[in-house]
Amino acid sequence: MSSARRSYMMRRVLHGAMALFIIATLLFFLFRLGLPDPTAALITEGLSQAEREMVRARFGLDKPLWEQYVIYLVNIVQGDFGFSFHYRAPVADIIWERLGNTMVLMIPAIILAYGVGVPLGAWLSWRRGSRTDTVGVFIGLMFRSAPMFWTGMIAILFFGIFLGWSPTSGMRTLPYEASGFLDKIFTLDFLAHLILPALIVALYYLGSPLLIMRNTMLEVYGEDFIEMARAKGLPERKILYNHAARNALLPVVTQLAVTIGLAAGGQVVVEVVFSWPGLGREILNAVRTSDFPLAQASFLVMAAFVITLNLLVDLLYTMLDPRVSFK
Amino acid sequence: MRVNNTLLSTALVGVSLLGITATPALAQERVPAINLITTTESYDPIRYEAAFMVAERWRELGLDVTVSPTEFSTALERFYDQQDFDAVILGWSGRTDRLDPQFFLNTLDSRQAGLGGNNPGGYENAEYDDLFDQQSMEFNNESRQQIVQQMQDMYKSDIPVVVLFHRDEVVAYNQDAFEGFQVMAGEGLYSEWGPMEAVPLGDRQTLRIGGPQEPDNLNPLDSTSVWGWKWMRLYYDRLVRLSADVEPLPWAAESVTALDETTIEVVLRDGMTFHDGEPVTAADVAFTFNYYLGQSYNYFNSYLAVLDNAEQVDDRTVRFHLSQPSASFGSITLSQLPILPKHLWEGIEDAGALAPSDIPMVGSGPFKFERFDRGEYMSISKFDQHWYADNIAVDGVEFIIYADMEGVYTGLQTGEIDMTAWRMEPGQIGLAEQQSHLNVVSVPDFGYFHMTYNLRRAPFDDRAARRALTRAIDRNRMVDVLLEGRGEVGSSVIAPVNAFWHESFVERFDFDMEAAREELRAAGYSWNSDGHLMR
How far apart are CA A9 and CA B306, in angstroms? Predict the structure, then answer.
């Protein structure tokens, strides 16, 4: 078992690395072919052609494409994401900071969505066909379908401006000096800034765990072991949460992993509406300014997240469901 | 369409080779289709709509017009780098240093017509180029004014570019919190004077500005954005500052004197210090200018093109040696370059490679640098030892960076910020006017939105066609409908608000479809039975 697991792991890690290499290559060419020259915007500042050539040379864009590509790959392998064209700062510093900001928004939102969505879905499945079920499913679908810029703006308008209960933008009240990241997020002020955007994201995410849980539960109810549990005379609540729910968790876990993986990219819309300084907003800016190093690295980090989490989920499966084996 | 025309002209060539002569009227062919490039609706709805207004009228004249909304950087690339366009709607922003006529006049100089140059339309007029050189070397303002106005007259009748309109910048501030702002053309409230003039009315003594734009970086040798310099100029002093009426005022300089045509002597004000306590001397000034010259690239390259070197004469005197006389050196160059502390920069070989944390943020300006949290916030505090400090009422300035104008307006509404750094969205103006604590201010701009014709391509290679098509543009309607009246129809690349240099007696090309048709007819154009314009 253990050696099977090890070789399985090795294989998966290798696949992941290959996927990352392909993604890195695609990103490199995609941005260079798809985005305009990063120095194009400098014209509006009145730069002459000769001056732009100097800037291009400084960015390394005067080298042949294959040479740029090789430099790029070698740097990535060494963990060097390069220097941002626009900010003139190391890309890694920018990304880690922004990724942190995004995660402190997304993780609570996801925990909230799944913490509420999963038991709620299970409960709705138990009350299937009733009015509660209809209303519950409707609400889940409604928030899933409502665009977040709209729900976000309504929330800002109502709670921020009309009631004045909540800050409307950013992640802290400025001016504020934090000595480090933890110092920045372990404050009541941060919590106050977090509530609205996190709630909006959580409401949006709520629909998936709720519906997936509800539907998987309905399938599980038909299984023999549920019949068996009933025959043993177990209370309905125990059947629901101890027997049925545990067996319905698998698809939810997959969905959760995908959600967390994609969360690295943030929710651009929410980050813009709430002026949250996260990675999503940064990616948008990077594409806008044709900041190749920053855009490449951001997407690569997102890809790495998704791949790693998929790997973790597959491992988790073997623990949640003994029927899954390493073959 | 173009294929058809090529086929047609090939056929015609074939016909004439066979010796069959067609009558002149039959030899006319359809005027080529026009592809009009503009911005996407999401980038700028105004330019987008303007293009459709133009296209509608040109179609009435019998032209085949396609509007191509193009992503902004791509549009810039096609216009400047590839010159692959028939006609383009783009714009130039009004920046203080462009109040000097040099920059905008240069966009019609034939030496800028190459790929990547500032004259992508390709206007070529040797006489205009001569006058350009003359004005750039003319120290006497009255004589220079005459040349500048003559140049505007000269290009205007050839109409290589249509200045569509100047859009007012509509900004707002919280009048319960601050007063005393003087607006500046092209700069609005967020001019270099704004923070120095603001007087707090409430408890908070710190002025809070909000905007969606942030500096690319705060490296004085590396920043290439106007938003970087709008902020840095508050904590780096300059030898000269331009007043709100754009008059050059000696600032860190006590005097600026032209010793001869190519030597300018600056005597520094006595007793200035940097924020780290070191004195500001002529050595620092000479070092700064020479340091900029020595870097491979910087934002001020074009201003420094005429400078050979800067020489320290004594502790307070610097001499600038120019390679040729330059009218704008004393006003523009000296008012744009910061003064850097020599003792902190002289050891830095390649300033472009500095990591943000290694940049010495020490200047000698009226404010000193405090903090920059990218994407969130920047702050500066008043520098009490500055000679102008007693005239400054605020104790500092904070700039809150929002993701978009929606966030900025919300901040203005809730009192989180005191003023907007940039123009409000059209929809917000009406809302702001209803708020009792907000004062909405309209500031005329000298930047402009233009339609540039590609003079290398038909029909724009023909002066008469350009003149006629320009007369078919209803620019009043653009201002009334698209700008809701907040702007002015353009008449010259030098805006009316730039009164000293603007020539008001240029040909205006007012909207008149009949006159447009008449001009085409007179130049030998005709219309076929389907109403298509033929040449």
Answer: 66
